Amino acid sequence: LSLAGLATLAVNPMFLFDVGCQLSFLAIGALVWLVPLAETAARHARGAIRGPESPLDRLERKYAPPWRASLRRAILALTRALLASFVVWIAALPLVALRFHLVSPIGVLLNLPLIPITSSALLLGGLGIIVSSVSGFIGDQFTWASALLLQITERIVRIGVQQPWGHWFTPGPGWESVAVFYALLGLAALWAGLGWSRRTPAGNEPEPSRAGARLELRGLWFWSIPIAWGTIALLLPRDRAPGKLEVQVLAVGHGLAVLIETPDGRVMLYDCGRMGDPSVGRRIIAPALWARGRSRIDRIFLSHADADHYDGLPDLIDRFTIGDVCVAGGFERSRDPAVRGLLARLRQVARVRTLEAGDLWDQGGVRFRVLHPPEGFLPESSDNARSLVLALEHAGRTLLLAGDLEKEGQERLLDLPPPEPAIDVLLAPHHGAKLANPPALLDWSRARILVASQRAPLSGTTDALTPYEQTGIEVVRTWSAGAIAFSFSTAGIMMSTYLDVPGRQAEPAE
Question: What band does 52 get if pLDDT is binned at 50, 70 and 90?
């Protein structure tokens, strides 16, 4: 195993960081070191429950009829296979939870049919490639059989996915806890290698001596340390109350997803979508939440009924517990079948309610204020015009989220008295589009920082927000800066971007 690892790294040292390579060597290591240990533990447990086997029991087993002996061997083989599958699953669980945020106990059962099926598919596929160089017709038969086995594999996996207890998502342990787990596991393997477990020749299974049994039990206790650590690391919640308002505008391209964490630890989302790519929910938004140890979204705001602002939500429903969902007036009246289907699914897992201008509430030291749309606002207007405009105020600083607000909706907003105090951070409406970001909006808000969630501009086009940079307004774009994070506190506003500087004072305390 060590030589195989060295050879693999010699071919490509980057395989050390490849999760597939890590899991492959981990599974083999578990089979080599952990499965024999588990069988030893099972033997001790069986002996403790049933007591020592009597000579009469051994004689009866020796002269049992062939069908009973065959049945016993089949049951024993199935039990050992289940035990091996369980041990490998336990060994890989912290790494899988860290990298894939997934716990899937159904895999323990699925391994039994899948390992022989996929192994056969791999063998047949390889034979098909080799034989095809001699006879295309015969090679096609091998590849056809391989494809059939892979179809069976996929069907079995889909059946497993449909089981409600088969898998669930988790933020996973921190990488430090995973490193400690595998360090302890390595020490336990070293202990085993030093000879604490006394093996006997194949086919010879005498009762272990009393001293040998004590030594084995000591080894079992030693192995229990990493298992206990891994269980605690997996179950221990990693979420925390930040003590200040933290906001991240995620880089989703042409779409919008704003992650909000209040000082008391509540998690909220303002929109969650990307144009033409609903996988943004599982590819970008879910990892961002898991990276902060979150398994629950307390509230989701959907600004309006455009897919690039909500199409990532179905994947989030599958992966997180959701408290309630707040929508702007007119969202529930949408005739779009996708919107109606989403609302029907949302009502099965969360409470859906409508927000209107004038709604005001406090959460963990943050004041939330709805500025638009008012009740019954122009039902014939576009979804963009009815975008939910939400102001967040904390420690004397204000963030304004405006969705895709434009046309009649923006005219109505600009008719309101200018906000006091002035807006510190403004999310540019409609991804920074020119018509949605007129000078009047910047004059009304007096924003100091303008944030645009947008894709990279097409060659030959101009950025409508560039002229504002010449007036002293700082413009930050997700396509060039990556995710943009703000921290609001009494000390001011700290801004950091994923691709630029890690953190700087964006607005000092007064």
Answer: confident
For residue range 309-347, what is the model confidence (pLDDT) as tens digits? 999 999 999 999 999 999 998 888 888 899 999 999 999
In the chain, count of helices (H) and strands (E)? 17, 18
Residue 289 identity = L
Q: What's the token pair of residue 443? A: 């004059």
Nearest to 246 by CA among 508, 473, 503: 503
Residue 153 pLDDT > 60: yes
Model pLDDT, residue 374: 94
Token pair listed for 34? 């952990």
Beta strands 484-489 and 492-497: pairing type?
Answer: antiparallel
pLDDT for the residue 32? 86
Per-residue burial over 465-480, b if 16 or more Cβ lie within 10 Å, else e, is beebeeeebebbbbbe
Length of the chain: 510
Q: What is the dihedral of CA 502, 503, 506, 509, to 10 degrees?
A: 180
Q: Which residue blocks in 359-489 are alpha helix, DSSP H?
A: 408-414, 439-445, 466-469, 478-481
- Condensed to tens digits (0 to 9), the pLDDT of residues 261-313 reads 999 999 999 999 999 999 999 999 999 999 998 999 999 999 999 999 999 99
Q: Is the distance from CB of 508 to CB of 495 less than 8 angstroms?
A: no
DSSP reduced 3-state for 103:
strand
Closest C-alpha among 132, 88, 128, 96 to residue 112? 88
Question: Is residue 261 classed as helix, strand or coil in its secondary structure?
Answer: strand
Kindly state the DSSP code that residue 12 receives in the 8-state scheme: -
Q: How far is CA 436 from CA 133, 254, 387, 433, 450, in A?
A: 62, 15, 12, 5, 13
Helix (H, G, I), strand (E, B) or coil at 244: coil
Report the distance separating Cα 85 and Cα 47, nearest Å.
Answer: 23
Report the C-alpha dihedral over residues 62, 68, 72, 74, rounded to 10 degrees.
Answer: 130
Q: How confident is the model at residue 217 (pLDDT cuts 50, 70, 90)?
A: low
- Token code pair at residue 223: 């192995």
Residue 181 and residue 183: Cα distance in Å, rounded? Answer: 5
Structure tokens of 465?
A: 């927000």
The alpha helices in 350-484, defined as continuous H runs, are 408-414, 439-445, 466-469, 478-481
Query: Which residue's entry shows tokens 């609001």?
Result: 488
Token couple for 124: 């047949």
Are residues 492 and 504 in contact, defined by beta-carbon separation less than 8 angstroms?
Answer: no
Q: Check: CB of residue 377 under 8 Å from CB of residue 412.
A: yes
* Lookup: tokens for 361: 């509430």
How many angstroms separate the Cα of 483 from the Cα of each of 62, 285, 496, 498? Answer: 69, 11, 8, 5
SS3 content of the chain, % helix, strand, coil (to 5): 50, 20, 30
Nearest to 428 by CA among 402, 446, 464, 407: 402
Q: At what angle do helices 210-235 and 175-193 cross, to 10 degrees?
A: 170
